[in-house]
Amino acid sequence: MTNLIEMKDISKSFSNVAVLKNVSFSLQEGEIHALMGENGAGKSTLMKILTGIYTSDGGSIAVRGKEVRFSNPKEAEQMGIAVIHQELNIIPQLTVAENMFLGRDLCYGKTGILRTREMKKKTREYLERLGVAIDPDTEAGTLSIGQQQMVEIARALSINAEVLIMDEPTAALTDKEIEALFTVIRGLRAQGVGIVYISHRMEEIFALCDRISVLRDGSFIGTEVIKDTNLERIVRMMVGREIGERFPERITAIGEERLRVENVTEGKVLSGISFTARRGEIVGIAGLMGSGRTEIARLLFGADRKKSGTVLLDGKEMTIHNPSDAIRAGIGFVTEDRKSQGLILGLSVRENMSLANLGSVSRRGIMSAASENRLSSEMMQRLNVKAKDAGQTVKSLSGGNQQKVVIGKWLGIKPKVLILDEPTRGVDIGAKKEIYTIMNQLTADGVTILMISSELPEILGMSDRIIVMHEGKIAAIMDKAQATQESIMHAATGGK
Length: 496
Prior knowledge:
The chain is about 35% helix and about 25% strand. It is an alpha/beta fold. It folds into 2 domains: about 5-240, 3-Layer(aba) Sandwich (Rossmann fold), CATH 3.40.50; about 255-490, Rossmann fold. The strands form 5 sheets. The protein has a 6-stranded mixed beta sheet with strand order 6-7-8-3-9-10. It has a 6-stranded mixed beta sheet with strand order 16-19-20-13-21-22, with helices on both faces. A hairpin with a 7-residue loop joins strand 11 (about 255-265) and strand 12 (about 275-280).
């Protein structure tokens, strides 16, 4: 096969800290090449150098055998290199066609008058190449995340991209959208497009990719052919050690009933929700996106109001009007989107840890620095948060450490019930294992955990019981022993 990209001995440092150390990476024509490594391994930095966002301190880059040195992303794009970012670059207020040609408008000569009809026609053609029927006049913000992603891919095709970099492309997609995306990716591979695929989801990597390259601590560890390797070897390359069983053994003694939800309806999505959860139990909540999983969490936390029904905590009926009421009752909520809903990125680890604990770290409304330091030090040690110190801003931490900071924020309230919505999304496999261990430790202390997850192996590996949602109702409640991926999906899709 022809090498589309050849990166050799790439080095990069920031403030005298080496982020990449003589890293090499190649991408062949018509292959899907996974780039893996723990958070902070250097994957994003390497791709930013390839696309001209950063300039390397050393090494070389060749595109189809021609050495290049991009000074900005536009130059990389002109050489046929396109990026589909995890946070999509879609302007919601513009139409699909306007997003497609943003910065590359088709005009009549130098008049500045847009060739609108031609832009819409080309937009439709590129979307049809992907097997997608979206009206070019549709406002982009009204599309699903999966549809927005297809628009981004179509835009890449419109610049004749030969190289497509995809960063966590399935993180916010439904199973149906993932299936459609994989069909498109395989079609692009057949057309000779080279795809760099960055994901923490091992099942996807082994189902989709041809080769896999691993970085660790800024160094290149090696490249493997997918059909000739296995999960254990890749994990060992990523973390530099044997990680043991993927999910730690659950040996917690489950106690008496802690939470009871009876016939709860909130008038929009949820209808007739009833379930229980006990002390020291992890109750997994599964279902397709839009099935009502997150709505249960928001209702219990007071972010949404119930229309009818009863919620009891330790046998006492609760009246929760807002999140403050939930926090006082001992309910914590690690939200799905940690960056916009769980953290204030510009604040320090210490300040973020204090957010849900202002009463305990202040006196008469005045913050106590000593109390803040004590809380943050205790949580950083307990959760093994890797940071320079408690004063480091959370935006500079890896995804796994950011997630630990969010969890630490809620542990400070000494929760009775901790709701975890997609607790390991965007987190590498080593940090996942640490979060699972933290969950087991919490349940050993009697905390009840409700865990919402789109990853069925995670649901099966960590839950004691599993609630399956379908169209706002509970489709099934299963004990761990009887649950399988097939039985969960059967219930989640409305099967009887």
